[in-house]
Amino acid sequence: MSDSTDVAWMNYALALARVANATGEVPVGAVVVRDGVILGEGWNRPIGLCDPTAHAEIQALRAAAQSIGNYRLTGATLYSTLEPCPMCAGAMIHARIKCLVFGAYDPRSGAAASQFNILQSETLNHRVAWKVGILQEECTALLQAFFRNKRGTPA
Asked: Is-catalytic flag, 57?
């Protein structure tokens, strides 16, 4: 995919992250796209849904699988504003996502590069290509502002 296409989809994911932010959830948004068509989208909702698995990526994967009637999302790209956690990375592998594009690194629990490399593990039966840096500053800034606000720390 071209960088302009990636930027457009990451902007879409950022809009979803802002929905999460507006409801007091950690501002992460995700969208699953195949052949230029949105298959599913989501934003963080674990607090609102009382569901520890309601991460943005899981919400997007569930919606995508429902929309096509198949849990295998071969050929699809998942755009997320934040590097996925181990749970979300595992779900991407099971869904056979082709590529992950994420905005901000998660230095504490990132499962693509920061702490783990689950997506490229040779012990698993599928690998997910990934790239980072698309709107990285915007994605990082949104998360940092959220946590500064939570802590009551000035900008």
From this structure: yes
